[in-house]
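Bug: C-alpha coordinate stream looks shifted between consecutive jobs. Job 1:
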Amino acid sequence: MKVANIRIIIMSALFVCIGLMSIQIYWSMHMGMVGRTIGWMMMSVAMMTVLGGLMLVLFKLLRQKMLHEVQKDFVSNITHEFKTPLSVIHLSAEVLKDPKIITTPQRLLNYAGIIAQESKHLSSHVEKVFQLSEIESGGLKMKPDTMDWGELLQENVKIFEKIIQEQSGEIKLHLSDSQIDFYGDYFHLNNVISNLIDNAIKYCDNTPVIHIFLKIRRKNLHISVKDNGIGIGKQHQKLLFRKFYRVPTGNVHDVKGVGLGLNYAKFIAKAHGGEIRCSSNLGKGSTFTLVFPIKN
Protein backbone atom coordinates (compact mmCIF):
# COMPACT_ATOMS: atom_id res chain seq x y z
CA MET A 1 0.00 0.00 0.00
CA LYS A 2 1.32 3.46 -0.94
CA VAL A 3 2.29 6.09 1.65
CA ALA A 4 -0.41 8.44 0.29
CA ASN A 5 -3.11 5.84 0.98
CA ILE A 6 -1.82 5.33 4.52
CA ARG A 7 -2.01 9.09 5.13
CA ILE A 8 -5.60 9.16 3.86
CA ILE A 9 -6.59 6.35 6.26
CA ILE A 10 -4.96 8.07 9.25
CA MET A 11 -6.44 11.50 8.40
CA SER A 12 -9.90 9.99 7.90
CA ALA A 13 -9.70 8.28 11.29
CA LEU A 14 -8.61 11.54 12.94
CA PHE A 15 -11.48 13.49 11.34
CA VAL A 16 -13.95 10.85 12.53
CA CYS A 17 -12.56 11.14 16.06
CA ILE A 18 -12.77 14.94 15.95
CA GLY A 19 -16.37 14.72 14.69
CA LEU A 20 -17.31 12.31 17.48
CA MET A 21 -15.69 14.57 20.08
CA SER A 22 -17.66 17.55 18.72
CA ILE A 23 -20.92 15.62 19.01
CA GLN A 24 -19.97 14.58 22.53
CA ILE A 25 -19.30 18.19 23.56
CA TYR A 26 -22.63 19.28 22.05
CA TRP A 27 -24.52 16.60 23.98
CA SER A 28 -22.73 17.56 27.19
CA MET A 29 -23.93 21.17 26.78
CA HIS A 30 -27.55 20.54 25.71
CA MET A 31 -28.60 17.22 27.27
CA GLY A 32 -29.52 16.31 30.81
CA MET A 33 -27.44 14.19 33.17
CA VAL A 34 -28.81 10.88 31.84
CA GLY A 35 -28.46 12.05 28.23
CA ARG A 36 -24.89 13.20 28.85
CA THR A 37 -23.99 9.85 30.44
CA ILE A 38 -25.50 7.85 27.60
CA GLY A 39 -23.90 10.16 25.04
CA TRP A 40 -20.51 9.85 26.74
CA MET A 41 -20.72 6.07 26.73
CA MET A 42 -21.82 5.89 23.09
CA MET A 43 -19.13 8.29 21.91
CA SER A 44 -16.46 6.48 23.94
CA VAL A 45 -17.42 3.16 22.39
CA ALA A 46 -17.45 4.72 18.91
CA MET A 47 -14.04 6.36 19.40
CA MET A 48 -12.53 3.17 20.77
CA THR A 49 -13.90 1.29 17.76
CA VAL A 50 -12.40 3.81 15.34
CA LEU A 51 -9.04 3.84 17.11
CA GLY A 52 -9.03 0.04 17.37
CA GLY A 53 -9.75 -0.23 13.65
CA LEU A 54 -6.94 2.25 12.93
CA MET A 55 -4.50 0.25 15.03
CA LEU A 56 -5.52 -2.96 13.24
CA VAL A 57 -4.99 -1.33 9.84
CA LEU A 58 -1.58 0.02 10.87
CA PHE A 59 -0.58 -3.41 12.24
CA LYS A 60 -1.54 -5.13 8.98
CA LEU A 61 0.28 -2.48 6.95
CA LEU A 62 3.42 -2.94 9.04
CA ARG A 63 3.21 -6.71 8.70
CA GLN A 64 2.70 -6.37 4.94
CA LYS A 65 5.74 -4.09 4.69
CA MET A 66 7.90 -6.53 6.68
CA LEU A 67 6.77 -9.44 4.49
CA HIS A 68 7.55 -7.39 1.38
CA GLU A 69 11.06 -6.65 2.68
CA VAL A 70 11.66 -10.31 3.54
CA GLN A 71 10.45 -11.45 0.11
CA LYS A 72 12.61 -8.81 -1.56
CA ASP A 73 15.64 -10.13 0.34
CA PHE A 74 14.71 -13.67 -0.71
CA VAL A 75 14.58 -12.68 -4.39
CA SER A 76 17.94 -10.91 -4.03
CA ASN A 77 19.51 -13.91 -2.29
CA ILE A 78 18.13 -16.54 -4.66
CA THR A 79 19.22 -14.43 -7.65
CA HIS A 80 22.72 -14.25 -6.20
CA GLU A 81 22.72 -17.99 -5.50
CA PHE A 82 21.76 -18.76 -9.11
CA LYS A 83 24.01 -16.13 -10.68
CA THR A 84 27.27 -17.33 -9.13
CA PRO A 85 27.18 -20.99 -10.31
CA LEU A 86 25.82 -19.94 -13.70
CA SER A 87 28.77 -17.57 -14.15
CA VAL A 88 31.22 -20.32 -13.20
CA ILE A 89 29.56 -22.79 -15.58
CA HIS A 90 29.65 -20.21 -18.39
CA LEU A 91 33.36 -19.48 -17.89
CA SER A 92 34.19 -23.19 -17.69
CA ALA A 93 32.20 -23.88 -20.86
CA GLU A 94 34.12 -21.13 -22.67
CA VAL A 95 37.38 -22.82 -21.71
CA LEU A 96 36.12 -26.21 -22.89
CA LYS A 97 35.24 -24.70 -26.29
CA ASP A 98 38.95 -24.29 -26.99
CA PRO A 99 39.97 -27.22 -29.27
CA LYS A 100 43.46 -27.26 -27.76
CA ILE A 101 42.11 -28.37 -24.35
CA ILE A 102 42.00 -32.01 -25.53
CA THR A 103 45.79 -31.96 -25.38
CA THR A 104 45.61 -31.40 -21.60
CA PRO A 105 43.24 -34.11 -20.30
CA GLN A 106 43.72 -33.19 -16.64
CA ARG A 107 42.73 -29.57 -17.28
CA LEU A 108 39.69 -30.75 -19.25
CA LEU A 109 38.71 -33.06 -16.40
CA ASN A 110 39.08 -30.23 -13.85
CA TYR A 111 36.73 -27.92 -15.74
CA ALA A 112 34.24 -30.74 -16.35
CA GLY A 113 34.28 -31.37 -12.58
CA ILE A 114 33.64 -27.69 -11.89
CA ILE A 115 30.61 -27.71 -14.20
CA ALA A 116 29.27 -30.86 -12.55
CA GLN A 117 29.74 -29.39 -9.05
CA GLU A 118 28.09 -26.05 -9.87
CA SER A 119 25.23 -27.86 -11.65
CA LYS A 120 24.68 -29.78 -8.43
CA HIS A 121 24.51 -26.49 -6.51
CA LEU A 122 21.91 -25.17 -8.96
CA SER A 123 19.85 -28.35 -8.59
CA SER A 124 19.98 -27.93 -4.82
CA HIS A 125 18.57 -24.39 -5.02
CA VAL A 126 15.87 -25.44 -7.47
CA GLU A 127 14.91 -28.27 -5.10
CA LYS A 128 14.59 -25.81 -2.19
CA VAL A 129 12.27 -23.55 -4.16
CA PHE A 130 10.28 -26.59 -5.31
CA GLN A 131 9.93 -27.80 -1.71
CA LEU A 132 8.72 -24.34 -0.68
CA SER A 133 6.10 -24.47 -3.42
CA GLU A 134 4.94 -27.92 -2.26
CA ILE A 135 4.75 -26.81 1.37
CA GLU A 136 2.72 -23.73 0.40
CA SER A 137 0.28 -25.80 -1.66
CA GLY A 138 0.08 -28.64 0.88
CA GLY A 139 1.49 -31.04 -1.67
CA LEU A 140 4.60 -32.11 0.23
CA LYS A 141 3.74 -35.60 1.46
CA MET A 142 5.78 -37.86 3.71
CA LYS A 143 6.65 -41.43 2.68
CA PRO A 144 7.48 -43.02 6.04
CA ASP A 145 9.16 -46.37 6.48
CA THR A 146 11.28 -48.11 9.12
CA MET A 147 14.66 -46.37 9.24
CA ASP A 148 17.92 -46.35 11.18
CA TRP A 149 18.93 -42.95 12.55
CA GLY A 150 22.46 -44.18 13.25
CA GLU A 151 22.94 -45.11 9.60
CA LEU A 152 21.55 -41.77 8.42
CA LEU A 153 23.88 -39.79 10.68
CA GLN A 154 26.92 -41.89 9.79
CA GLU A 155 26.33 -41.30 6.07
CA ASN A 156 26.13 -37.53 6.64
CA VAL A 157 29.33 -37.56 8.69
CA LYS A 158 31.15 -39.33 5.83
CA ILE A 159 29.88 -36.78 3.31
CA PHE A 160 30.92 -33.72 5.34
CA GLU A 161 34.07 -35.17 6.90
CA LYS A 162 36.29 -34.35 3.93
CA ILE A 163 34.97 -30.77 3.69
CA ILE A 164 35.60 -30.17 7.40
CA GLN A 165 39.05 -31.80 7.36
CA GLU A 166 40.07 -29.43 4.53
CA GLN A 167 39.45 -26.64 7.06
CA SER A 168 41.48 -28.54 9.73
CA GLY A 169 38.24 -29.10 11.64
CA GLU A 170 36.52 -32.20 12.96
CA ILE A 171 33.08 -33.74 13.14
CA LYS A 172 32.23 -36.26 15.85
CA LEU A 173 29.26 -38.59 16.09
CA HIS A 174 27.90 -39.72 19.47
CA LEU A 175 25.37 -42.54 19.08
CA SER A 176 23.03 -44.06 21.64
CA ASP A 177 23.84 -47.56 22.90
CA SER A 178 20.17 -48.54 22.59
CA GLN A 179 18.54 -49.86 19.44
CA ILE A 180 16.05 -47.25 18.23
CA ASP A 181 13.22 -48.19 15.88
CA PHE A 182 11.93 -45.15 14.01
CA TYR A 183 9.24 -44.78 11.38
CA GLY A 184 9.89 -41.78 9.17
CA ASP A 185 10.65 -40.34 5.76
CA TYR A 186 14.36 -41.04 5.27
CA PHE A 187 14.73 -38.65 2.32
CA HIS A 188 13.34 -35.55 4.03
CA LEU A 189 14.93 -36.27 7.42
CA ASN A 190 18.27 -36.74 5.67
CA ASN A 191 17.81 -33.34 3.99
CA VAL A 192 17.18 -31.74 7.38
CA ILE A 193 20.33 -33.21 8.96
CA SER A 194 22.40 -32.31 5.91
CA ASN A 195 21.13 -28.73 6.10
CA LEU A 196 21.92 -28.43 9.82
CA ILE A 197 25.50 -29.69 9.33
CA ASP A 198 25.97 -27.43 6.32
CA ASN A 199 24.82 -24.43 8.40
CA ALA A 200 27.22 -25.41 11.18
CA ILE A 201 30.09 -25.20 8.68
CA LYS A 202 28.94 -22.02 6.93
CA TYR A 203 28.31 -20.04 10.10
CA CYS A 204 31.71 -20.73 11.63
CA ASP A 205 34.41 -18.06 11.50
CA ASN A 206 37.20 -20.32 12.81
CA THR A 207 38.17 -23.99 12.72
CA PRO A 208 34.85 -25.91 12.72
CA VAL A 209 34.24 -28.48 15.45
CA ILE A 210 30.87 -30.20 15.13
CA HIS A 211 29.31 -32.75 17.49
CA ILE A 212 26.26 -34.81 16.53
CA PHE A 213 24.32 -36.57 19.28
CA LEU A 214 21.68 -39.29 19.14
CA LYS A 215 20.02 -39.75 22.55
CA ILE A 216 16.85 -40.98 24.22
CA ARG A 217 15.41 -38.66 26.86
CA ARG A 218 12.07 -39.11 28.62
CA LYS A 219 10.64 -41.36 25.90
CA ASN A 220 11.70 -38.87 23.22
CA LEU A 221 14.37 -39.19 20.58
CA HIS A 222 16.83 -36.27 20.47
CA ILE A 223 19.12 -35.62 17.48
CA SER A 224 21.40 -32.63 18.09
CA VAL A 225 23.92 -30.82 15.90
CA LYS A 226 26.26 -28.72 18.02
CA ASP A 227 28.81 -26.30 16.56
CA ASN A 228 31.38 -23.71 17.66
CA GLY A 229 30.24 -21.07 15.19
CA ILE A 230 29.35 -17.40 15.47
CA GLY A 231 26.16 -18.07 17.45
CA ILE A 232 22.75 -16.43 17.21
CA GLY A 233 21.44 -13.51 19.25
CA LYS A 234 18.39 -14.05 21.46
CA GLN A 235 16.36 -11.53 19.43
CA HIS A 236 16.77 -13.64 16.30
CA GLN A 237 16.15 -17.11 17.73
CA LYS A 238 12.35 -16.80 17.76
CA LEU A 239 12.39 -15.75 14.09
CA LEU A 240 14.81 -18.42 12.84
CA PHE A 241 12.19 -20.85 11.60
CA ARG A 242 10.14 -18.31 9.68
CA LYS A 243 10.09 -18.58 5.93
CA PHE A 244 12.78 -16.47 4.18
CA TYR A 245 14.24 -15.26 7.49
CA ARG A 246 18.02 -14.96 7.67
CA VAL A 247 20.03 -13.73 10.62
CA PRO A 248 21.94 -10.57 9.62
CA THR A 249 25.68 -11.29 9.30
CA GLY A 250 26.88 -7.87 8.13
CA ASN A 251 27.08 -8.64 4.41
CA VAL A 252 23.89 -10.39 3.29
CA HIS A 253 25.85 -12.33 0.65
CA ASP A 254 28.77 -13.18 2.94
CA VAL A 255 27.09 -16.48 3.88
CA LYS A 256 25.25 -18.31 1.12
CA GLY A 257 21.62 -19.19 1.67
CA VAL A 258 18.04 -18.23 0.85
CA GLY A 259 16.32 -18.54 4.24
CA LEU A 260 14.34 -21.72 3.58
CA GLY A 261 16.34 -24.48 5.27
CA LEU A 262 15.18 -24.04 8.87
CA ASN A 263 11.58 -23.39 7.85
CA TYR A 264 11.71 -26.66 5.89
CA ALA A 265 13.28 -28.42 8.91
CA LYS A 266 10.44 -27.20 11.14
CA PHE A 267 7.84 -28.46 8.67
CA ILE A 268 9.47 -31.90 8.37
CA ALA A 269 9.85 -32.24 12.16
CA LYS A 270 6.20 -31.30 12.68
CA ALA A 271 5.11 -33.76 9.97
CA HIS A 272 6.75 -36.51 12.06
CA GLY A 273 5.00 -35.40 15.26
CA GLY A 274 8.13 -33.65 16.55
CA GLU A 275 9.76 -30.25 16.78
CA ILE A 276 13.10 -28.49 16.27
CA ARG A 277 14.74 -26.38 18.96
CA CYS A 278 17.61 -23.90 18.99
CA SER A 279 20.00 -23.09 21.83
CA SER A 280 22.64 -20.50 21.05
CA ASN A 281 24.87 -17.75 22.41
CA LEU A 282 26.75 -15.16 20.38
CA GLY A 283 30.37 -16.15 19.90
CA LYS A 284 29.86 -19.54 21.55
CA GLY A 285 28.11 -21.56 18.86
CA SER A 286 24.67 -23.09 18.42
CA THR A 287 22.89 -26.38 19.03
CA PHE A 288 19.91 -27.42 16.92
CA THR A 289 17.92 -30.35 18.28
CA LEU A 290 15.24 -32.44 16.61
CA VAL A 291 12.86 -34.00 19.15
CA PHE A 292 10.54 -36.88 18.21
CA PRO A 293 8.35 -39.19 20.25
CA ILE A 294 9.90 -42.65 19.99
CA LYS A 295 6.60 -44.13 18.88
CA ASN A 296 5.79 -41.52 16.25
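Job 2, same session, no restart:
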Amino acid sequence: MKRKRADSSRLLAILIIILGIAYFYANLFIPRWIPKTIRVGTVRKPLNILVVGTDITFDKKTGEPLETVDGRTDSILILHIDPARYKINVLSIPRDSFVAVPGHGIQKINAANVLGGIDLLKKTLSELTGLKIDNYIEVNPYVVIKLVDILGGIKLYVEKDMVYTDRAQNLHINLKQGWHRLNGKETQDYLRFRHDMFGDIGRIERQQKVLQTIFVTLASPSNIVKSPLAIKTATNYVKTDLSLGQLVRLANFVRMLSGRDFHSFMAGGEPGASSFSGSIWLINKIDLETIIEENFR
Protein backbone atom coordinates (compact mmCIF):
# COMPACT_ATOMS: atom_id res chain seq x y z
CA MET A 1 0.00 0.00 0.00
CA LYS A 2 2.82 2.38 0.90
CA ARG A 3 4.55 1.63 -2.40
CA LYS A 4 1.36 2.41 -4.34
CA ARG A 5 1.02 5.71 -2.52
CA ALA A 6 4.67 6.51 -3.27
CA ASP A 7 4.19 5.66 -6.95
CA SER A 8 1.09 7.85 -7.08
CA SER A 9 3.01 10.72 -5.48
CA ARG A 10 5.82 10.34 -8.02
CA LEU A 11 3.32 10.34 -10.92
CA LEU A 12 1.62 13.43 -9.50
CA ALA A 13 4.97 15.18 -9.10
CA ILE A 14 5.95 14.27 -12.67
CA LEU A 15 2.58 15.51 -13.94
CA ILE A 16 3.00 18.83 -12.11
CA ILE A 17 6.51 19.24 -13.56
CA ILE A 18 5.24 18.48 -17.08
CA LEU A 19 2.38 20.95 -16.71
CA GLY A 20 4.78 23.56 -15.32
CA ILE A 21 7.13 23.09 -18.29
CA ALA A 22 4.19 23.28 -20.71
CA TYR A 23 2.95 26.49 -19.07
CA PHE A 24 6.43 28.01 -19.16
CA TYR A 25 6.85 27.03 -22.83
CA ALA A 26 3.43 28.44 -23.76
CA ASN A 27 4.06 31.64 -21.80
CA LEU A 28 7.39 32.11 -23.57
CA PHE A 29 6.55 31.10 -27.13
CA ILE A 30 2.75 30.97 -27.54
CA PRO A 31 1.26 33.06 -24.67
CA ARG A 32 -1.98 33.58 -26.59
CA TRP A 33 -2.74 29.86 -26.19
CA ILE A 34 -2.92 30.15 -22.40
CA PRO A 35 -6.60 30.28 -21.27
CA LYS A 36 -7.58 33.70 -19.90
CA THR A 37 -8.63 32.13 -16.58
CA ILE A 38 -5.06 31.08 -15.78
CA ARG A 39 -3.22 33.87 -17.59
CA VAL A 40 -1.26 36.18 -15.29
CA GLY A 41 0.70 39.38 -15.68
CA THR A 42 -1.15 40.83 -18.66
CA VAL A 43 -3.72 43.51 -19.48
CA ARG A 44 -7.29 42.46 -18.66
CA LYS A 45 -9.42 45.50 -19.52
CA PRO A 46 -9.44 48.01 -22.41
CA LEU A 47 -7.21 51.04 -22.07
CA ASN A 48 -6.73 54.27 -24.00
CA ILE A 49 -3.16 55.49 -23.69
CA LEU A 50 -2.01 58.86 -24.96
CA VAL A 51 1.48 58.76 -26.46
CA VAL A 52 3.12 62.14 -26.95
CA GLY A 53 6.38 62.41 -28.84
CA THR A 54 8.57 65.44 -28.24
CA ASP A 55 11.03 67.06 -30.58
CA ILE A 56 14.66 66.06 -30.32
CA THR A 57 16.93 68.77 -28.99
CA PHE A 58 20.27 68.77 -30.80
CA ASP A 59 23.70 69.84 -29.65
CA LYS A 60 24.59 73.03 -31.54
CA LYS A 61 28.21 71.96 -32.04
CA THR A 62 27.97 68.25 -32.82
CA GLY A 63 24.42 67.94 -34.14
CA GLU A 64 23.95 64.88 -31.93
CA PRO A 65 20.60 64.35 -30.14
CA LEU A 66 20.57 65.35 -26.47
CA GLU A 67 19.04 62.94 -23.95
CA THR A 68 16.26 65.20 -22.70
CA VAL A 69 12.47 65.10 -22.58
CA ASP A 70 11.98 68.86 -22.70
CA GLY A 71 11.33 69.25 -26.43
CA ARG A 72 8.16 70.54 -28.11
CA THR A 73 5.18 68.25 -28.75
CA ASP A 74 5.89 66.70 -32.13
CA SER A 75 3.52 63.73 -32.47
CA ILE A 76 0.26 62.72 -30.80
CA LEU A 77 -1.15 59.18 -30.79
CA ILE A 78 -3.93 57.39 -28.92
CA LEU A 79 -3.34 53.67 -28.35
CA HIS A 80 -6.50 51.65 -27.77
CA ILE A 81 -5.52 48.43 -25.99
CA ASP A 82 -8.22 45.79 -26.57
CA PRO A 83 -7.37 42.57 -24.68
CA ALA A 84 -10.70 40.89 -25.52
CA ARG A 85 -10.05 41.11 -29.27
CA TYR A 86 -6.23 40.88 -29.05
CA LYS A 87 -5.78 44.22 -30.81
CA ILE A 88 -3.97 47.50 -30.51
CA ASN A 89 -5.51 50.30 -32.57
CA VAL A 90 -3.48 53.47 -33.02
CA LEU A 91 -4.97 56.85 -33.88
CA SER A 92 -2.59 59.61 -34.97
CA ILE A 93 -3.61 63.24 -34.62
CA PRO A 94 -1.59 65.60 -36.86
CA ARG A 95 0.22 68.13 -34.71
CA ASP A 96 -1.16 71.07 -36.73
CA SER A 97 -4.80 69.99 -36.23
CA PHE A 98 -6.91 73.10 -35.62
CA VAL A 99 -9.15 72.21 -32.66
CA ALA A 100 -10.91 73.68 -29.63
CA VAL A 101 -8.52 73.81 -26.68
CA PRO A 102 -10.59 74.20 -23.46
CA GLY A 103 -10.15 77.68 -22.06
CA HIS A 104 -8.01 78.87 -24.98
CA GLY A 105 -10.25 78.89 -28.04
CA ILE A 106 -9.27 77.38 -31.38
CA GLN A 107 -5.59 76.45 -31.52
CA LYS A 108 -3.20 73.98 -33.09
CA ILE A 109 -3.49 70.88 -30.93
CA ASN A 110 0.22 70.84 -30.10
CA ALA A 111 -0.30 74.16 -28.31
CA ALA A 112 -2.39 72.39 -25.64
CA ASN A 113 0.69 70.82 -24.08
CA VAL A 114 2.42 74.20 -23.95
CA LEU A 115 -0.62 76.00 -22.52
CA GLY A 116 -1.62 73.49 -19.86
CA GLY A 117 0.64 70.46 -19.93
CA ILE A 118 -0.41 66.85 -20.39
CA ASP A 119 -3.69 67.34 -18.49
CA LEU A 120 -4.93 69.98 -20.92
CA LEU A 121 -3.85 67.87 -23.88
CA LYS A 122 -5.77 64.89 -22.48
CA LYS A 123 -8.86 67.05 -21.96
CA THR A 124 -8.57 68.47 -25.48
CA LEU A 125 -8.34 64.99 -26.99
CA SER A 126 -11.23 63.70 -24.89
CA GLU A 127 -13.46 66.50 -26.15
CA LEU A 128 -12.28 65.99 -29.73
CA THR A 129 -12.73 62.20 -29.80
CA GLY A 130 -15.22 61.47 -27.03
CA LEU A 131 -12.73 58.96 -25.56
CA LYS A 132 -11.61 58.72 -21.95
CA ILE A 133 -7.81 58.88 -21.82
CA ASP A 134 -6.70 56.46 -19.08
CA ASN A 135 -2.94 57.01 -19.08
CA TYR A 136 -0.21 58.85 -20.92
CA ILE A 137 3.36 58.27 -22.06
CA GLU A 138 5.53 61.24 -23.03
CA VAL A 139 8.43 60.07 -25.13
CA ASN A 140 11.64 61.67 -26.28
CA PRO A 141 12.44 60.15 -29.70
CA TYR A 142 15.96 59.43 -28.43
CA VAL A 143 14.43 56.31 -26.82
CA VAL A 144 13.83 54.91 -30.32
CA ILE A 145 17.57 54.84 -30.96
CA LYS A 146 18.18 53.03 -27.68
CA LEU A 147 15.37 50.47 -28.08
CA VAL A 148 16.19 49.60 -31.68
CA ASP A 149 19.85 49.06 -30.81
CA ILE A 150 18.87 46.85 -27.83
CA LEU A 151 16.78 44.73 -30.22
CA GLY A 152 19.68 44.38 -32.63
CA GLY A 153 17.98 46.54 -35.24
CA ILE A 154 14.56 46.26 -36.89
CA LYS A 155 13.66 44.93 -40.31
CA LEU A 156 11.87 47.65 -42.21
CA TYR A 157 10.91 48.41 -45.80
CA VAL A 158 12.06 51.88 -46.87
CA GLU A 159 9.45 52.92 -49.41
CA LYS A 160 11.73 55.22 -51.42
CA ASP A 161 15.23 56.69 -51.48
CA MET A 162 15.54 59.22 -48.68
CA VAL A 163 18.39 61.69 -49.08
CA TYR A 164 18.63 64.91 -47.10
CA THR A 165 21.41 66.98 -45.56
CA ASP A 166 21.17 69.70 -42.93
CA ARG A 167 24.68 70.85 -42.06
CA ALA A 168 23.42 73.13 -39.26
CA GLN A 169 22.22 70.04 -37.35
CA ASN A 170 24.93 67.75 -38.71
CA LEU A 171 22.08 65.72 -40.21
CA HIS A 172 22.83 63.39 -43.09
CA ILE A 173 20.02 61.06 -44.17
CA ASN A 174 20.85 58.55 -46.87
CA LEU A 175 18.50 55.57 -46.98
CA LYS A 176 17.91 53.47 -50.06
CA GLN A 177 14.59 51.99 -51.10
CA GLY A 178 14.04 48.35 -50.15
CA TRP A 179 14.19 46.02 -47.15
CA HIS A 180 16.85 46.84 -44.56
CA ARG A 181 17.77 46.00 -40.99
CA LEU A 182 18.03 49.50 -39.60
CA ASN A 183 20.01 50.36 -36.49
CA GLY A 184 18.82 52.99 -34.02
CA LYS A 185 20.36 55.98 -35.82
CA GLU A 186 19.04 54.85 -39.22
CA THR A 187 15.56 54.33 -37.75
CA GLN A 188 15.68 57.85 -36.34
CA ASP A 189 16.70 59.17 -39.78
CA TYR A 190 13.74 57.31 -41.30
CA LEU A 191 11.41 58.94 -38.76
CA ARG A 192 12.85 62.42 -39.17
CA PHE A 193 12.63 62.51 -42.96
CA ARG A 194 9.79 64.79 -44.08
CA HIS A 195 11.19 66.48 -47.16
CA ASP A 196 8.75 65.32 -49.78
CA MET A 197 5.28 66.22 -51.01
CA PHE A 198 3.63 64.39 -48.08
CA GLY A 199 5.40 66.34 -45.32
CA ASP A 200 4.09 65.62 -41.82
CA ILE A 201 1.34 63.30 -43.08
CA GLY A 202 3.92 60.97 -44.61
CA ARG A 203 5.94 61.17 -41.41
CA ILE A 204 2.89 60.08 -39.37
CA GLU A 205 2.61 56.95 -41.53
CA ARG A 206 6.28 56.19 -40.88
CA GLN A 207 5.84 56.72 -37.13
CA GLN A 208 3.02 54.18 -37.07
CA LYS A 209 5.04 51.74 -39.15
CA VAL A 210 8.08 51.96 -36.85
CA LEU A 211 5.93 51.69 -33.69
CA GLN A 212 4.27 48.52 -34.97
CA THR A 213 7.61 47.01 -36.04
CA ILE A 214 9.20 47.69 -32.64
CA PHE A 215 6.21 46.11 -30.85
CA VAL A 216 6.30 42.99 -33.05
CA THR A 217 10.10 42.67 -32.81
CA LEU A 218 10.05 43.04 -29.02
CA ALA A 219 7.30 40.40 -28.80
CA SER A 220 9.31 37.71 -30.61
CA PRO A 221 10.56 34.81 -28.42
CA SER A 222 14.17 35.52 -29.39
CA ASN A 223 13.89 38.99 -27.85
CA ILE A 224 11.88 38.13 -24.74
CA VAL A 225 15.04 38.10 -22.58
CA LYS A 226 15.64 41.70 -23.67
CA SER A 227 12.25 42.90 -22.43
CA PRO A 228 13.41 43.89 -18.90
CA LEU A 229 16.29 45.94 -20.35
CA ALA A 230 13.96 47.50 -22.94
CA ILE A 231 11.47 48.49 -20.23
CA LYS A 232 14.24 49.88 -18.01
CA THR A 233 15.65 51.86 -20.94
CA ALA A 234 12.22 53.18 -21.87
CA THR A 235 11.52 54.38 -18.32
CA ASN A 236 14.75 56.39 -18.41
CA TYR A 237 13.55 58.40 -21.41
CA VAL A 238 9.82 58.80 -20.84
CA LYS A 239 7.39 60.48 -18.49
CA THR A 240 4.34 58.37 -17.69
CA ASP A 241 1.66 57.76 -15.09
CA LEU A 242 1.81 54.02 -15.79
CA SER A 243 3.38 52.03 -12.97
CA LEU A 244 6.18 49.55 -13.59
CA GLY A 245 3.68 46.74 -13.04
CA GLN A 246 1.35 48.20 -15.67
CA LEU A 247 4.23 48.53 -18.14
CA VAL A 248 5.17 44.88 -17.59
CA ARG A 249 1.56 43.75 -18.11
CA LEU A 250 1.37 45.85 -21.26
CA ALA A 251 4.61 44.30 -22.55
CA ASN A 252 3.24 40.81 -21.84
CA PHE A 253 0.05 41.64 -23.74
CA VAL A 254 2.07 42.85 -26.73
CA ARG A 255 3.85 39.48 -26.76
CA MET A 256 0.53 37.80 -27.59
CA LEU A 257 0.09 39.86 -30.74
CA SER A 258 1.31 39.57 -34.30
CA GLY A 259 1.65 42.24 -36.98
CA ARG A 260 -1.94 41.75 -38.13
CA ASP A 261 -3.22 42.66 -34.66
CA PHE A 262 -1.98 46.26 -34.97
CA HIS A 263 -4.19 48.71 -36.85
CA SER A 264 -3.27 52.31 -37.62
CA PHE A 265 -5.58 55.24 -38.32
CA MET A 266 -5.17 58.98 -38.80
CA ALA A 267 -7.51 61.88 -38.19
CA GLY A 268 -7.99 62.72 -41.85
CA GLY A 269 -8.82 66.10 -43.26
CA GLU A 270 -7.25 68.74 -45.45
CA PRO A 271 -4.57 71.42 -45.15
CA GLY A 272 -5.57 74.99 -44.46
CA ALA A 273 -4.21 78.29 -43.22
CA SER A 274 -4.87 80.57 -40.28
CA SER A 275 -4.04 84.25 -39.94
CA PHE A 276 -2.49 83.68 -36.51
CA SER A 277 -1.36 80.02 -36.66
CA GLY A 278 -0.02 79.67 -40.19
CA SER A 279 -0.40 76.25 -41.80
CA ILE A 280 -3.06 74.11 -40.13
CA TRP A 281 -4.81 70.74 -40.53
CA LEU A 282 -8.61 70.80 -40.70
CA ILE A 283 -9.92 67.50 -39.32
CA ASN A 284 -12.89 65.86 -41.02
CA LYS A 285 -15.09 65.42 -37.93
CA ILE A 286 -17.51 62.97 -39.58
CA ASP A 287 -14.72 60.63 -40.68
CA LEU A 288 -13.10 60.87 -37.24
CA GLU A 289 -16.36 59.94 -35.51
CA THR A 290 -16.66 56.88 -37.78
CA ILE A 291 -13.10 55.76 -37.01
CA ILE A 292 -13.70 56.17 -33.26
CA GLU A 293 -17.02 54.35 -33.26
CA GLU A 294 -15.79 51.39 -35.32
CA ASN A 295 -12.33 50.92 -33.81
CA PHE A 296 -11.99 52.61 -30.41
CA ARG A 297 -15.14 51.67 -28.51
